[in-house]
Amino acid sequence: MTVKEGIEQIKVLLSGQAELQTEEVAQEPATELSFETYDLMDGTKIDLSALEIGADAMLVDESGNSVAAPSGEYELADGTMVTVVDGKIEGIESPVAELPEVEDEMTKENDEMSNQFDEMDATINYLKAENEALKAKIAEMDGKFNQAFQKVFVLVEELAKMPSADAIQAPKQSFKVTESKADKVDRFLNKFVK
Question: Taking the model in full, what pTM does it have?
Answer without folding.
Answer: 0.35
